[in-house]
Amino acid sequence: MRTRRWALLPPLLTALTVTALTLTLTALPLTALSPTAHAGDPLPPADPVPTVARAWPVGSRPMVLRGWEPPATVYGPGHRGVDLAASPGTPVRAVASGRVSFAGRVAGRGVVSVELTGTGDPPLRTTYEPVRPSVHQGDALEPGDPVGTVEPTGGHCPAPCVHWGLVRATTYLNPLTLLPPRLLHPAPSRLLPVLGVPVPR
Asked: Which domain holds residue 167?
């Protein structure tokens, strides 16, 4: 009987390991691993991104310290998001309505991930890091709702910043495409004529 029990141990451990790994990869928002992907595989074509954002994550129009640099292949080098200038303690806000899918720490950094409402199946998911979360998994959010504050964790940017990412399933996308043109490129100020005022002589 003991021999039979010991014989069941290796398959049981394998099943538990696979289950734990699957749950981890589902929970962590910054993972882009695919069991069938290889290092040299080209990236799959991306669906169009709807302009659902109603606010920037930080500030009204923050400086982009490093832009979107899509990798040529699945595991190739690149920058899978944008870095926005933001001092530690700066409030970080949801850019669109959605629900928190993850709020916690990944590799020592605070991360918040939000599934965006009405963006297809699987839904688009935004990520913000390094952020000290003020929300919890399952919380519903509206555009502009706070999700946390920028942490002073360094190393990713030459200056304090928040990394803003966008992903659908395992495909990373440019988060700036969520923003409508009025937020990306606000209209320039215009001087209007003043009527009824005498011209100085």
From this structure: 64-182
